[in-house]
Design a protein that fits this description.
3-stranded mixed β-sheet; alpha/beta; 5-stranded parallel β-sheet; flat; 8 strands; about 5% strand
Length: about 625
């Protein structure tokens, strides 16, 4: 005597027996009752949720002849007529199922479509059911498009897939699509109780809970696991045997770990992790169970008194106790750590060592609770360094605007810029001297100090700090005014001063370099040189010159080509410099290209400082944890 597995024995034979798919059942039942029938249906969803079952019930509804043989299209097939019994047994000639996973080519699809020209032999409709339709090839999809769009009136298509994203939109647009949802554990547990009652098998409620969770929304998986559990438990389902069969972690370990983490007891955490190793319990299952418990704890913390399950769940009291013991932020942090830790187990050589590290991570990053926490979030303790270009931008400590008591600021922006240019110091001034002078001139409230960012002692940077500080006293809340004033002050400086101030350490400004930079810029503006000749002029350094010969130096031999040198000589002659160029290979310290790079870097540094020092930007970063996207600040050209 052959045994029929539960998944096949209790497959629904009509829409009333369908479980967990009420939205699909209602739509199809109404369509069948009113006979507003589409020519193509597509059922999507994960494995074991009823896609093939729905298609067979739909085929029976379309072809049911009734108990007396006079029935018509109905939402409640009788199940006893020849059409219904033949479809259930898989021998109905007008119902064809094609497995696209093994018949995915264009030849198989064409052979199926050749049958579409013939009317039904026994039933009212021909029904073509294509399972796992996303496995068809592109040519196979193209072959069925026209028939799928305008089939004969007696032909219905039913497509099923677990991956609708792989189905071409040209096919999706020709079908009515129904998404069968994964079933809730409670729905699966209730159905298992009914099945086991019919099978006269005793089962614990906790055992059914374990099976319903392990099914992950699939009723077929749940029934298959139940078959296995019945065999494993010799005809009875108990929590211990089901847990042993599934390899699930006892919730007592999970509660012990959460209790230890809430109290900061690292010793208990390590000992419990070692107990899991000795008992051979899965590390991944431990983290999954912890994630489930933490999610329910978070719900209890957000909505106190909310029932997570039925009143018979003995674990609900433990969850309520832990929800009251662990702060909300620690619950959220540990939930995130557990989710990310599941993916890290496979990266470690020992999954139990990885489990221990994941659990101890909460103790390492355990949030501090107290009055000092909120104060630390408002300010930073250490001064910030100037961000390097391309590096992540740090948070800026907020500095309250301070106006000197002795004198009020009444100058306009132009006056400040003009005074600053006229009174520029001849010798470099250190950042410490600037900070000391500013603090001496201002009257600060008791305990308040200005945060000073340590920058390189460089004339260009110092001038930018002084200018920005003066503008901030005039109008701190307007970023546009700061930028406009900065542009005015840069235009007021002479090109020679700006070039000298902006030179980094690897550029040695020389009079010959100034002359060569001006000459090359004029040639480029006049479009007298291009391509390799332009590159030769930009990358070279004018070392010496007399009335008829100029000596240029380049770093790469590839730039010293006769054609490039001749074109550059011709362009210089057209500009009034009839000379012969002599090119040597060596180290270049002052070229037009290096000067352009230095100017661009300095402009970027000043632009970033203006944005970082703006009070409004600092306020947004402090109050709302805003961040400036690296690379988003660009200097105004």
């Amino acid at each position: 005597m052959s045994y029929l597995v539960l998944a096949r024995k209790y497959r629904p034979s009509n829409f009333t027996e369908m479980v967990g798919q009420d939205h699909v059942v209602q739509a199809l039942s109404n369509a069948l009752t009113t006979q507003r029938l589409h020519h193509a249906y597509m059922f999507t969803g994960t494995r074991g949720v009823g896609k093939t079952t729905v298609s067979r019930i739909l085929a029976k509804s379309l072809n049911c002849q009734g108990v007396d043989g006079k029935g018509g299209i109905t939402a409640s097939p009788c199940g006893v007529c020849q059409a219904c019994t033949d479809i259930d047994s898989g021998r109905f000639v007008d119902y064809t199922e094609l497995d696209a996973a093994s018949n995915r080519g264009v030849d198989e699809v064409q052979a199926l479509l050749e049958q579409a020209v013939y009317k039904p032999v026994q039933g009212r409709f021909k029904v073509f059911m294509i399972d796992e339709v996303h496995m068809l090839t592109g040519h196979a999809f193209n072959a069925m498009l026209k028939t799928l769009e305008e089939p004969p009136e007696y032909l219905k298509f039913v497509l099923a897939t677990t991956d609708p994203q792989k189905v071409p939109v040209t096919v999706l647009s020709r079908c009515l699509q129904f998404n069968l949802r994964p079933m809730a554990p409670e729905t699966i547990r209730e159905h298992l109780q009914k099945v086991l009652q019919l099978e006269q098998v005793s089962a614990d409620v906790q055992a059914l809970r374990l099976l319903s969770r392990a099914a992950h929304g699939s009723m077929r998986d749940a029934l298959s696991l139940t078959d296995q559990a019945i065999a494993f438990g010799s005809g009875a389902l108990s929590e211990a045997t089901v847990r042993q069969m599934l390899g699930s972690v006892d919730r007592s370990y999970v509660f012990r770990l959460l209790d230890a983490l809430a109290q900061g007891d690292g010793k208990t955490v390590v000992e419990t992790s070692e107990a899991l190793r000795l008992n051979g319990l899965s590390a991944a299952s431990t983290l999954e169970e912890m994630s489930v418990v933490l999610q329910r704890m978070a719900v209890l913390q957000a909505v106190p008194g909310m029932a997570l399950d039925d009143d018979t769940d003995p674990e609900q009291a433990q969850m309520q106790r832990l929800a009251a013991l662990m702060p909300m932020d620690e619950t959220q942090l540990l939930y995130s750590i557990c989710l990310h830790g599941i993916g890290e187990l496979g990266l470690a050589p020992d999954e139990y060592a990885a489990l221990t590290m994941v659990l101890l991570r909460l103790l390492a990053f355990k949030p501090a609770h107290g009055a000092s926490t909120s104060a630390e979030k408002k300010t930073l303790k250490s001064p910030l360094a100037t961000p390097e270009r391309g590096s992540p931008l740090p948070h800026i400590a907020h500095v309250e605007p301070v106006v000197p008591v002795a004198t009020a600021v009444t100058h306009s922006v132009d006056d400040v810029a003009a005074d600053d240019v006229k009174n520029r110091p001849e010798a470099p001034v250190s950042i410490g001297q600037v900070a000391a002078e500013n603090e001496a001139k201002q009257v600060l409230p008791e305990g308040q100090r200005l945060a000073v960012r340590e920058l390189p002692d460089h004339p260009g940077v110092i001038n930018s700090i002084e200018k920005n500080h003066a503008l901030a006293q005039v109008e701190q809340a307007q970023v546009a005014t700061n930028i406009e004033a900065f542009q005015v002050r840069v235009q007021a400086d002479s090109p020679r001063d700006v070039a000298a101030a902006n030179m980094p350490h690897n550029v040695d400004a020389t009079p010959e370099g100034d002359f060569w930079y001006t000459t090359v810029q004029a040639l480029i503006a006049a479009e007298a040189i291009n391509a390799m000749a332009r590159e030769l002029a930009l990358q070279s350094q004018l070392v010496a010159r007399d009335s008829d010969e100029w000596l240029l130096r380049v770093e790469r031999e590839s730039l010293n080509q006769s054609g490039s040198r001749d074109r550059l000589t011709t362009a210089l002659a057209a500009a009034g410099h009839s000379v012969r160029l002599i090119i040597e290979v060596g180290r270049v310290t002052d070229s037009p290209a290096k000067r352009k790079t230095a100017a661009a870097a300095q402009a970027q540094l000043v632009a970033e400082k203006i944005v970082f020092d703006d009070p409004f930007v600092q306020s947004m970063m402090r109050e709302f944890a805003a961040k400036i996207v690296p690379g988003s600040i660009k200097p105004v050209q």
